[in-house]
Every structure is written in structure tokens, then in C-alpha cells.
Amino acid sequence: MKQSYPPVTTKRVDVKKIAKRLIMMAKRDQEVRDKYFALNDKKYLDEMWKIDEKNQREFKEIFRQVGLITSEYGSEAQMSAFLIVQHMSREEVKFMKNYLSLMKKNITGYPLNIYAMLVDRVRNWEGKDQLYGTQFMPVEGKENTYKLKKLYKSHLVEKRRMELGLEPLGEYIKKLQEERGVTLIL
To answer: What pTM was estimated for this model as a whole?
Structure first.
């Protein structure tokens, strides 16, 4: 049976309860990622995947009930929803695209940089080059070093970033390096 998105339910939902649940899910997501990146320990990678899988199942159930997490749920819940969707596996690209489409139609409350990140992640999972330069991959043999994934028409990336209201790619990369204590290369 084909699932319908957004939900078909008209059942009243407890916005605060859902927001709190999403925030806790995202907290687990970020705690394990922080450990993994800080300690570069593979055991946290397995834990990260397990948390992502659990969050994915829980989030899809929430989505079936309420659809897009809008500003009604608060900015922290919106960011939490984004993180959970952003960290879904390649097998969930259809769901991610649907969420992205709804997000684009109701962008209020979502920072534009997270919209760009989800666009790039979805394109990456589809085997396409990214548009905004938000996705990186580890450089084998170099600890804490990541390379920018391929850009679609790279000569137009600054124009696309500017049109979306994002800082230039070089500034973005510098900010990420400082925040995460990693080396990012083009």
C-alpha cells in the first residue's frame, strides 16, 4: 500500500509533546556525532548508525501524524527535524525529497543554510553533484581532513549561494573549520 505524504489525519496533536520528542531525538543524534568526531573512534560510528535508524523510524511516524515540522513547533524542533532527515540513509532519499519539497513551500523558521544542506544531501544520495557546497567526505589516510564533494557547475556556486542568501563558500569553509577543528579542502 502506498503511503501518503503529507498525512491524511485530522487528529489533534500535542505540539509541545512532539517538539520535545524531536529535540530529544536530535540531542541523541548530536551527542554521538560529537563523540565520534572528537575521538575519531569507530565504535561511535556504529552507535551513530543505530541512533540514525531509530530516529528515522520515530520521525517517519511523527511525520505521518503531522507532516512538515513548521514554525508552530518552534525553531529548535524545526532544526531537530532537519537533523533527523539530513542524517537519513540513502534508501530514504524519496522521503527526504518529499520533506525537502514541503520545506521549500513553507520555509518560514528554517535557516536557509539548512535548506541548502538538505538540497545538497538529497542530490548526493541521488548521485548528482551538489549545488551549494555543503557536503564533504573524509580524506582517506588524513585524520580530521575532509574534501568538498563535487559541485554542479562549480563556476556558478557563488551565484547560487548568494541567491539563497548564504555567505561565500570560502567563508563557510573557514567557519566550519574553526567550529569543528577539522581541515576542509576543495
So the answer is: 0.84
- HSE of 103, CA atoms in CB hemisphere, 13 A: 25
**CA angle 43-143-47, nearest 5°?**
15
CA–CA gap between residue 10 and residue 112 (Å, rounded): 30
Decide if 125 contacts 93 (C-beta within 8 A).
Answer: yes
Q: In whole angstroms, give the CA distance from residue 180 to residue 144.
A: 9
- CA atoms of 114 and 28, how far apart (whole Å): 19
pLDDT exceeds cutoff 50 at 30: yes
Sequence-separated (6 or more) residues with CB below 8 Å from residue 141 = none
- For residue 9, the model assigns a pLDDT of 47
Q: Which of 90, 87, 157 is nearest to 118 (CA)?
A: 87
Domain-wise residue ranges, the chain? 15-110, 136-185
> Could you give phi then psi for residue 153, rounded to 5 degrees?
40, 70
Stronger pLDDT, 62 or 182, i.e. the higher one: 62
